[in-house]
Design brief:
heterodimer, A: about 450 residues, alpha+beta, Cytochrome Bc1 Complex, Chain A, domain 1, 6-stranded mixed β-sheet, 5-stranded mixed β-sheet, 15 helices, 13 strands, about 20% strand, B: about 500 residues, 2 domains, 7-stranded mixed β-sheet, 17 helices
């Protein structure tokens, strides 16, 4: 019944649920690289079908950069970019943004601050002027800081007695120890209360820099029209970001965390080691995950847990890859009297995959799916294509990746997939069980 | 409130409906003219439609940007069409449509779609059940063949029904029984609607779901799954001639299987009371409230009323620029969230709701009073021409932005045509939005937002008390989420 009213609340608090983006091939779409006079690079897909422009960008440096004791700083900052910039206060800025027919949003994840604007092509100058103000001269006025901070605190409080939220937090702490990924990216009431205007301004200055910037643009705009706009928004930012180094997370696997609560279902999460997007065996692991419990209605876990036995509505696995961690996660929720049976089925499927790997037939079907699904999953709208452009650059995959991707997938051998299965699935996982006692 | 259930959690979220995206243009004549021209271009956008001999309606929406087509088959049957005592059968049957047919073994259609990297899913609401796939244009004939096949050739048995019934029971536990807000929302609908089947949850009541059986499923199939009770929408990289030829070759072979007849559900009596529903749960730590009214939908409103209600909800609480948000969240600092929602996309009566939750030291009562005051102010003084113009421009803008998503376009046409409306209604919506006058907004507010006929709901912490006493008249018993679902 509540609707999301500010981008602040879109932050995913639980630490391990982000699904990996395999970067996105854009068949039949030409990606141009545009370099502005001041040297800002962007990837552009020009397309005049709808008179709009979708612009996305990201800066390296997200919640993992929050200083100890100031958890939630990055997330709070992203709620403040439409709350006043330059000589426009919050109200004046939002009024102008509305009048320009543009939509602007910022979010933080652990590794990055991302921004997006969707605008009408013929009103792009007005819209981009506002974006330039927001990016370069956010005001961080005290009244909006206090208001957005209170909204976030209310949001944190709203879920503080929810057993699955409590469990997710406990699990994150158990998995990550004192690594920044294990902290609450929304922060806590105490940490948010300690954040000052100087903290926000300082953070903005350190992170919004040209060397860690990625830009993707899709829509009704030419390279010549885009170049000056890039300069307007990003051209005057500092040359270099000042980021604190973040260590790789060492996931504490092999332990089970239980949260007892008299719920009508028992939810089960399992965490195994994963692969990074840049690792050489990424595609073998990616294919293996697809067969084990990935996206389609024919994965092994889906078939065994749901189709054959009716034990759950959702059951599957996912690869998670962030800058400083990688994991394969499995999750489901089932009736509590059969939770033990369900957990055993999941373990059996993992063991079977680790031991024997997939069949030739499963491998060839998975390849066909993963090759064919790319356009469908990534070309549905201008915003989706713009996100794809960011993902491709983020992983340094190159503008020709789209053409190469099918070959990369098709080159994967059965032995490579079997090796990936052994490597990831022979480890004892971390397990989280939330539900009635003894389920 | 709308309630749409998908076959899996992975179901994709299709892009926004016509009236919810928020974009504004200044009230400036030249821009207005440009905007209108763009909107008209977006409206028609080469959309064509035709009927097959067997009564199936087909709509084609070309968009050649990417080699992808969205194929959606909308059956004009939802949970509000179920027989008494059979709540949940529409959604349960949607799940069963993925089983074996006389022609193909169970799972073959899904495998074929997966094999080419296609996406598929299905969802059920009060008024419709839709099945969709996104595939490359070359695979369109394949999905049409399988989709047409399962319209007439599904075979079910006791085992299949029993296993899938367990799946939907788990789905109910996941979505509703584990979620205090969802449980409360279910009770609110059962209170707001006194006679219309919108009072029953789409997923069904647990005790009735447990009894759904093979006979129920087959009877439902034979009555409602027929070409003359469906609309096919194909959007994306395809043209109308191709779709027509393929549709005749596939769906055209399916005979009219039944005559489901007019969709006449029991209608609502006059509402005469103010009702309160509250739920206290140990898992809730922040209280919140919602007030909801029965109002006309786009389908059953008098001309212009639904458009006025839509604009009213936008001005009152549709965005961060709205009256409610500005007053309660920004200026008075009372609310963590506050807003307004008009659900006008129903075959029968729709709903209008306002909601809020306090922040800091503010009480829930203060937030509720603040929202009430904003409603009262519009009833008393109406809105300004400037507010109306801005809200209107946001709606018109949303029409242009909607064109950016082929799946979103398919959904707009499919849902509209499944709730009693026509293609013309979709395409003339911008004109009708243009025609709304300042006075119309105040009129619908006065006519429909009558406090004495509202249902207010409170979601409360177990140990917390409402700030003021909650009227006891008509109060529903708090629901204990743990009682029904736990089998231990």
């Amino acid at each position: 019944m509540t609707r999301v009213l500010t981008p602040v609340f879109s932050r995913i608090a639980a630490a391990f649920l982000l699904v990996i983006l395999a970067a996105a091939p854009v068949y039949a779409v030409e990606i141009k690289e545009v370099v502005s006079p001041k040297g800002i690079r962007a990837w552009l897909v020009q397309d005049d079908f709808v008179p709009l422009i979708a612009l996305r960008f990201s800066f390296e440096g997200g919640s993992a950069q929050d200083p100890k004791g100031k958890e939630g700083l990055a997330n709070l900052m992203t709620g403040l970019f439409d709350e006043g910039a330059g000589d426009l206060d919050s109200d004046a800025f939002q009024e102008k943004l509305d009048d320009a027919g543009a939509e602007m949003g910022f979010t933080a994840d652990d590794d990055r601050i991302s921004g997006a604007m969707r605008m009408l092509a013929d009103r792009r100058d007005e819209a981009v002027d506002l974006l330039a103000l927001a990016v370069n001269k956010p005001r961080f006025d005290q009244a909006p800081i206090d208001r957005i901070r209170q909204q976030i605190i209310a949001n944190i409080k709203a879920s503080e007695r929810d057993p699955n939220t409590i469990a997710g937090r406990k699990f994150a702490e158990a998995l990550y120890g004192d690594h920044p990924y294990g902290r609450q990216s929304q922060g806590t009431e105490t940490s948010l209360t300690s954040v000052t205007r100087d903290d926000l301004a300082g953070y903005h200055k350190r992170v919004f820099a040209r060397d860690k910037l990625i830009v993707g643009v899709v829509g009704s705009i030419s390279p010549e029209q885009l170049a000056p706009l890039l300069d307007k928004v990003f051209g005057d930012l500092p040359e270099k970001a000042q980021l604190e180094p973040v260590k790789d997370a060492n996931l504490a696997l092999g332990k089970t965390t239980r949260v007892d609560y008299p719920l009508p279902q028992t939810s089960i999460s399992m965490v195994y080691p994963g692969v990074r997007r840049q690792d050489a065996d990424f595609f073998p692991a990616f294919i293996m995950n697809h067969i084990l419990g990935g996206g389609s209605f024919s994965s092994r876990i889906y078939t065994e847990v749901r189709e054959k036995r009716g034990l759950a509505y959702s059951a599957g696995s996912a690869l998670v890859s962030r800058d400083h961690m990688a994991a394969l996660t499995i999750s489901t929720a089932t009736r509590s009297d059969r939770a033990g049976e369900t957990l055993q089925i999941l373990k059996d499927e993992v063991a079977r995959m680790a031991q024997d790997g997939p069949t030739e037939n499963e491998l060839s079907e998975a390849k066909k799916y993963l090759v064919g699904s790319y356009a469908i999953n990534n070309l549905d709208s201008s915003s989706a294509v713009a996100s794809t452009l960011i993902g491709l650059q983020d992983e340094h995959l190159g503008r020709d990746y789209i053409d190469k991707r099918a070959d990369l997938i098709n080159a994967v051998t059965l032995d490579q997939v079997k090796a990936a299965a052994k490597k990831l699935l022979e480890t004892e996982p971390a397990i989280l069980i939330v539900g009635p006692p003894q389920s | 409130m709308s309630q749409i259930l998908s076959r899996t959690v992975a179901a994709f979220i299709l892009a926004g409906t016509l009236s919810t995206a928020g974009f504004i243009l200044p009230a400036n004549a030249q821009t207005m003219a440009q905007l209108t021209a763009e909107v008209q271009k977006a409206d028609s956008a080469g959309v064509t439609s035709f009927h097959l001999q067997n009564g199936l309606e087909v709509v084609v929406i070309p968009d050649h940007r990417a080699p992808v087509v969205t194929h959606m088959l909308w059956y004009h049957v939802g949970s509000a069409d179920e027989d008494p005592g059979k709540s949940g059968i529409a959604h349960f049957f949607e799940h069963l449509m993925f089983k074996a047919t006389k022609t193909y073994p169970a799972g073959e259609f899904s495998r074929k779609v997966a094999e080419i990297g296609g996406q598929e899913n299905a969802f059920t609401s009060y008024d419709y059940t839709a099945f969709f796939q996104q595939v490359s244009p070359q695979a369109l004939e394949m999905v049409m063949t399988y989709e047409a096949d399962r319209m007439e050739n599904l075979i079910l048995n006791e085992d299949v029904v029993k296993t899938e019934r367990d799946v939907v029971l788990e789905e109910r536990r996941s979505r509703t029984d584990t979620n205090p807000a969802a449980l409360l929302s279910e009770e609110v609908n059962a209170t707001l609607y006194q006679n219309h089947p919108y009072r029953f949850p789409v997923i069904g009541w647990l005790h009735e779901m447990e009894q759904l059986n093979l006979k129920d499923a087959l009877a439902f199939y034979e009555k409602f799954y027929t070409p003359n009770n469906a609309t096919l929408v194909v959007s994306g990289d395809v043209d109308a001639d191709t779709v027509k030829a393929l549709a005749e070759k596939t769906y055209g072979k399916v005979p009219r299987r039944s005559e489901p007849g007019k969709r006449e559900r029991p209608q609502e009596p006059e509402q005469n009371t103010k009702r309160t529903v509250s739920l206290a749960d140990a898992r809730v730590s922040q209280p919140s409230f919602q007030k909801i009214w029965l109002v006309p939908s786009y389908n059953n409103a008098k001309p212009g009323e639904a458009e006025a209600l839509d604009l009213l909800s936008e001005i009152l609480g549709g965005s961060t620029r709205s009256r409610v948000y500005q007053a309660l969240v920004v200026k008075d600092g009372l609310a963590a969230s506050a807003g307004v929602y008009y659900q006008g996309g129903a075959l029968d009566d729709g709903t209008f709701s306002v909601y809020g939750a306090p922040r800091g030291s503010a009480s829930l009562q203060q937030v509720e009073d603040g929202v009430d005051a904003q409603v009262a102010r519009i009833i008393k003084d109406g809105v300004t021409a400037d507010e109306l113009e801005k809200a209107r421009n946001r709606f018109l803008k949303s029409v242009i932005f909607a064109r950016d998503s082929q799946a979103g376009m398919a959904r707009i046409y499919g849902s509209t045509l499944s709730t009693g409306q026509t293609i013309k209604d979709v395409q003339e919506w911008p004109d009708r939005i243009q025609a709304v006058k300042v006075q119309d907004i105040q009129d619908v507010a006065k006519r429909y937002l009558v406090d004495a006929h509202s249902v207010t709901s409170y979601l409360m912490p177990e140990d917390g008390k409402p700030d003021e006493k909650i009227p006891s008249t008509g109060e529903a018993a708090p629901v204990e989420p743990q009682t029904e679902g736990v089998i231990q």
